[in-house]
Every structure is written in C-alpha cells, then in structure tokens.
Specification:
single chain; Phosphatidylethanolamine-binding Protein; seven-stranded mixed β-sheet; four-stranded antiparallel β-sheet; 32% strand; YbhB_YbcL/LppC-like; PEBP-like_sf
C-alpha cells in the first residue's frame, strides 16, 4: 500500500459516520457494489481508501473490514473478518495499492496487520458463499497506540477489546458484493 497525499476528490461519496471522521473509496460508493478486482473473483487486493477529518488528539487509526451477513444474508450466523490493520499513522490520509501488497509500512512505522477469519494475516476480499453481502470498512481514531506484538498478529476481538475507552471517532464505509454466478441466477429467476 502507498499513502495517499492531499485532499480527496470533491466527488467522493460521504460515508456513514458518527463523528466528523470520513471514510471513502475511489473504487465504489458508500452502499454500492465493490468491483470484482477487490474480491476473490478478481485480484483479491484491497480497494483504495481515503479518510478526512481525523480528530485532534488522534495517536493512531485502526481499520477493520468485516461481513456481518455470513454465511447467508437471509440467515446470518457470524461476522466474518476480512482485514484488520492497527496503529496506522494519523498523518496518513489513506492508501492505494502498489505492487508489494504486503507493505503496510507506508501506513506508518507502527502499522501492523492482524488476523482475519481465515486465520491468516492481511486482506482477503469478499467471497460470499451465497447471495449479496454487506462489507463494512470501519475506521477508528484512537487517543493511543495499541500495544500489539507484531510477531503475534491480533484478532479483531483482541483489537476491539484494546480499543475500549480510546475511540475518539469512527467512520464506516459499506460496500456490497455478490458473486457473478449468484447474481446471474437471481436475475434469471432461478433459486439457489
């Protein structure tokens, strides 16, 4: 990943948020479809993300991407974690993809990727088993760095526990994705 410098394009959609912190993507609108490049059916690389209005006093940022509709949006049972990144520098305004997909150093010297639900480290794109799923990209502004060991990448649960009492702001960007074969079946009136 490479840091994004400068302001976000004025045409960027506004995200759902509960503070002045704002999270957007140049790849999809809030509530819109995530392009297949950023999924298991494509390149499986993270979409570009940008953020604005980081609250004063922010020492680090945390990014979590998850899917609350797993395994079936009609009967969700678990929240599937796709990505966890902690201790992102507040001086970074976002990132875009580079050739070295494992490089989170551009998000600050302290940035560390955590474990996803596949029990691996790093980004894993949408790959819904059935139907259209919602993918929540959640950005948190914290008043401290999280004390995590890079040799033992943290889980979402560990990160959320460590964040308690330290959140200054939060922004959420929601993307949707449905596998092309599921979409074709649905549009042709066939049942799963």
């Amino acid at each position: 990943v490479a840091p994004s410098q400068g302001a976000v394009d004025d045409e960027q959609p506004q995200s759902i948020h509960n503070s002045s912190l704002l999270l957007t993507s140049s790849a999809f609108l809030d509530g819109g479809m995530i392009p297949s490049d950023y999924t298991s059916q494509g390149e499986d690389i993270s979409p570009p993300l940008q953020w604005l209005n980081v609250p004063d006093g922010t020492e680090s940022l945390v990014l979590i991407m998850d899917d609350p509709d797993a395994p079936d949006p009609a009967k969700p049972k678990i929240t599937w974690v796709h990505w966890v990144v902690v201790n992102i520098s507040p001086s970074v305004a976002g990132f875009t993809i580079t050739e070295d997909l494992s490089d989170v150093g551009s998000l600050g010297d302290e940035a560390i990727e955590g474990k996803n639900s596949w029990k691996t480290v790093g980004y894993r794109g949408p790959s819904p088993p059935i139907g259209k799923h919602r993918y929540f990209f959640k950005l948190y502004a914290l008043d401290s760095f999280l004390d995590v060991d890079g040799n033992s990448p943290p889980t979402k649960k560990q990160v959320e526990s460590a964040m308690e009492g330290h959140v200054l702001g939060e922004a959420v960007l929601i993307g949707l994705y449905e596998k092309e074969e599921d979409l074709s079946r649905r549009l042709n009136g066939k049942r799963f």
